[in-house]
Amino acid sequence: MATSVECGIVNCKWSKIKPFHFPADARVGEDVQVLCSTVGAKNRVKFTWFKDSSVIKTEEQWTVLDHETFSVFVVKSPSVESSGNYTCVARSSDGEDKYTTELLVRGPPKWRNEPRNIVVSLGEDSILDCSAWGYPRPSVHWKRPLGTEMTPVMENARISKLEDGSLRILGVTQNDRGYYMCEVSNGIGSTLKKTIQLTVKVHMKIQPFNFPPSVEEGQKSPSSMWVDWKRKF
Q: Residue 171: its pLDDT value, please?
């Protein structure tokens, strides 16, 4: 994906950025670079780079080499997490322009939000995390044990898989308690697998009770107290 946004002044031909693209076959561990250059700039240009709207500065992960009318951006030893939208912004006293392109790094899935054990109160909504980096985009599958076999989790009005692969359960019941396994794969490397436990808890609740309005000394006073004990399933 690549897009160019015109500068916001009437005469902005000075700073039109030449379209640029990352290599289509970018792979984990292999450096990639792009050149952001302007056409017709008469004054020195200041370049700023962004990744997914966050400003980029030269550091261990990448290098920025600025010149008067162009900037070289290098992604060093990229990982699957390096994938994203990169924007070059060119500014000078004459105006500004920006251009965005996407980097997709081919590599096996790597946890973004790793599944973890979770405790939920009866009736609450719950989200079981499971999302991963990777290109091609990883597919996510949820399973539960049925006897000695792991069977797919069936989606319905209460249980659904979110866009990132996490599992959402509305109004948790006692039947939802137990083990869940998340599998993530994209055809490269090994499949990621993680089994977690969903625990459903019920809080203790004391029912209101009262003593008789008057009791004589030594007389037994009948009263009842009901307790719902906190349980974990």
A: 96
